[in-house]
Amino acid sequence: AGAGGDDAGGEDISKVMTMIKKKDMYPVICFSFSRRECEEHPKALKNVDFTNDEEKAHIRTIFNHALTQCMAEEDRDLDAVTKILPLLEKGVGIHHSGLLPIVKELVEILFGESLVKCLFATETFAMGLNMPAKTVVFTSTEKFDGTEMRLLAPGEYTQMSGRAGRRGKDDRGTCIIMVDKKLEKEQLRGVCLGTPQPLNSEFKLTYYSILNLLKRAEGVVNAEYVIERSFHQFQHAEAVPRHKARLVEIEEEMTAMTHEHEAGVKAYHDLRREISACEAEMRARIVSPENAMRFLKPGRMIRVKHDGLDFGWGVVVHVAADAAGNDHVVDTLLQCAPGASEGKLAPASRGGPPSRAIDPDATCEVLPVSLAECVHELSAIRVTLPDDLRLRKNRESVGLALNELHQRYADDAFPRIDPIADMGIDDDAFAATAARCEALEKKLAKTATFKALQKEKKGDEGGEETKRVALYEKRAKFEEEAATLRSKVRSLSAVGEFRKELKSRAKVLKRLGHVDDALVVKLKGRAACEIDTADELLVTELMFNGCFTRLDASQLVALCSMFMPVEKVKHYTTPEALTPAIEELTTAAREIATLQKECKLDIDVDEFVDSFKPVLCEVVFDWSKGARFDDVMKKTDLFEGTVIRALRRLDELMMELHRAACAVGDEALAKKFEEGAKSLRHGVVFATSLYL
């Protein structure tokens, strides 16, 4: 069954939950990997009711009592509160970080009392809370991890599926996985039975920790002492013997390799690498959505490569953005080796010229491929597709058309879409890369190794040059691995890398006036020692350049909301009065990032500046002026829980700034920060917890 927020996904959810109710397999936790999905899935259960009249009355009593005890009267009719009750009365709950804290706690209590029988939750519900169920359902086997869509890690699956089965109540737990696309057997085995991910230290040096260590008499000695005894250093130092053993293995294998005609093969190999780098640079532009999407119509031929496998030329069936919106998925008809229907995915083998006949047992399958990662070339050819490709005979008819085209063209001779003439990618940088690639290919064609390989392809010689090239490439990979291992051993045997970073960060602190040449903490550094909730360098810069002084308390908390990390939003507005201060913050952020780059720290200047967005400025400004929560939520598409979490964290930052202002003796600014914190502390944002 497929899962998702569309009608088909909703129908599947309804069928699964109806079956669970009929077979008395509840309470059930249904894990989704998106907060939006957690909100959408319960809408499919209009005709599924898990509770009787007595339980409904009990739920209403607990709900009303919780609101009376913990919420002010004016907050009890908030949309986020009233809309959850009809679901709870049916024994259905929602649990994710975007809910109001009091609603989330209420759902936990009702689930613990077995009044909520069906809970739609994100994976955080499986962490820390002891809330077992009889059945666990996964609506997908993939999740977005902040960078890409990937399969669940074995540890994640174990943590969530481990909720199935209640001690002393159930003799077994049931786990149901809803799969909405083809999943190979080995992939599923890896998710369910794979080795858990290792625990790796994420220790990082921060200016806050460095300044607080420098405040002590020992200074840098203290900082290095902490680094040397960190779990990060222990973990990496422990890997040194393993790296050294592997290095010995590689060097022994390299010594055993012969080096005939090495100079010629090396020249060929180096040119191929340069050409590959140019092609990769050009390909990234060619397959970018803004350039490729208008050509990716059904019937277009594209070349697909994945994980070192060349699937050759396939035919576009359909294109859509992926769930996370970071890539496009191209459903492509490809010719596959026998066994594709059992999950053994490999390209079909094809004979040489002139017939270029394909394996007679090969099959034609429609597979989803990533535009960014797998699509390598676009052909100028389009083929006509039958209406229904679910029928095998229709897929095979497209396969016959592909075979005819392969007999007419070699792989490298298929007509391509010209990126300059057809796509209009005519900027100087792309043209220069294309010209460089063409020049390198001409140079490659003149090498003795290339000419020998061409003769061997035609069958004129016995393949000795091919073996020499393969051996050299293997040796080159060994050399790369050996260089990487030597570098790791050097950096891990001592505190080398951290020492370099400590030196660079100390240089930044000196340039910004936080410490003197002897690394003694100055007044500005004492203020930064108090800031742990936001970027300490940028915050203290705005304190000392007068930016904060020129704002009133409401403007101050609104501007500081830019330091609060929240998810991306499509639309937001900012108070006009804050425009100069926002520009000042952005300028200061760019200067600090540029300075860090000059001091040889690994930082992306634009990415650092873009991390401070005025997404919450208007929301916070209105809230600090006393606006109702429902009214401020109309100005953002963030979840209620996200806004409350940001406001509570902002309150912490304002008190840190209050202490920082006191540390430098600025009582007027300290008072303003305290007033800003007080302006946030009202209504549902600071409602009492049900657990207290």
Number of helices: 29
Shape: globular
Strand content: 5-15%
- Mean pLDDT across the residues is 85
What's the short story on this structure?
Helices cover 50% and strands 10% of the residues. The protein is an alpha/beta fold.
Provide a descriptive summary of the structure in words.
The protein is α/β, with parallel strands linked by helices and 692 residues long. It is built from 29 helices and twelve strands. The strands form three sheets. A five-stranded parallel sheet has the order 2-3-1-4-7. It has a five-stranded antiparallel sheet with strand order 11-10-9-8-12. Helix 13 (262-286) crosses helix 19 and helix 22 packs across helix 24. Residues 1-8 have low confidence and may be disordered.
Annotation keywords:
disordered N terminus, alpha/beta, 5-stranded parallel beta sheet, 692 residues
Indicate the topology.
Layout: H1 7-22, E1 28-31, H2 35-40, H3 53-70, H4 79-82, H5 85-89, E2 92-95, H6 101-112, E3 118-121, E4 135-138, E5 142-144, E6 149-151, H7 154-161, E7 174-177, H8 185-193, H9 207-214, H10 220-228, H11 231-238, H12 240-256, H13 262-286, H14 289-292, E8 300-306, E9 309-321, E10 328-336, E11 363-370, H15 371-374, E12 375-382, H16 392-408, H17 428-445, H18 448-457, H19 464-493, H20 496-511, H21 523-528, H22 536-544, H23 553-560, H24 579-598, H25 605-610, H26 617-624, H27 629-633, H28 640-663, H29 667-680
Parallel strand pairs: 1-3, 1-4, 2-3, 4-7
Antiparallel strand pairs: 5-6, 8-9, 8-12, 9-10, 10-11
Helix pairs in contact: 7-8, 12-19, 13-17, 13-19, 18-19, 22-24, 23-26, 23-29, 28-29
